[in-house]
Amino acid sequence: xxxxxxxxxxxxxxxxxxxxxxxxxxxxxxxxxxxxxxxxxxxxxxxxxxxxxxxx
Length: 56
What we know:
Elements: H1 3-8, H2 11-29, E1 41-43, E2 49-51
Antiparallel strand pairs: 1-2
């Protein structure tokens, strides 16, 4: 397995994903998102990426 594949199945990655979701919820509550704006991403050192869609 590659390093990014190992990260994708780790507890650390699950924590990163949870943090991204928390930030998106905070942004929404603060009114910082609207329409097609407000996506969030994290680029991990292993080249893995966690991101939210632009709109839901």
